[in-house]
């Protein structure tokens, strides 16, 4: 079960990173050039081809796929371990929620 969940999580993370990369490239170009127009985008696409749209995908795989895959995998794992406990709002679920809330709050304050 864990292996299947890990495979599903990794596939989802990779797909998300690869499919959203072209939008990230366009967004970054817009900020670099202050306002990237549609004709300029098409010119860049014609000049560089799909290679232009997929540049930086390697970094995006690390920055996006790893956290997404980890989140999906851990969510599946916690559902398997604490399934009934979480659905029924049991004491373990409340303690885990409080602890995670403190960790997130401390992380935000430290940033």
Mean pLDDT: 81
**Regions with pLDDT < 50 over 5+ consecutive residues?**
none
- Total DSSP E strands: 0
User: What is the end-to-end distance?
Assistant: 36 Å
Domain unit count: 1
Q: Bin the strand percentage.
A: under 5%
Give an account of the 3D structure.
This protein is mostly helical. It has one domain (2-82). The chain is built from four helices and no strands. Helix 1 (2-33) packs across helix 3. The relative contact order is 0.13.
Layout of strands and helices, then pairs:
Layout: H1 2-33, H2 38-53, H3 57-87, H4 91-110
Keywords: Membrane, Transmembrane
Subcellular location: Membrane
GO cellular component, one term: membrane
Quick summary of this structure?
The chain has helices spanning 2-33, 38-53, 57-87, 91-110. It is mostly helical.
Top keywords for this entry?
4 helices; mainly alpha; 111 residues
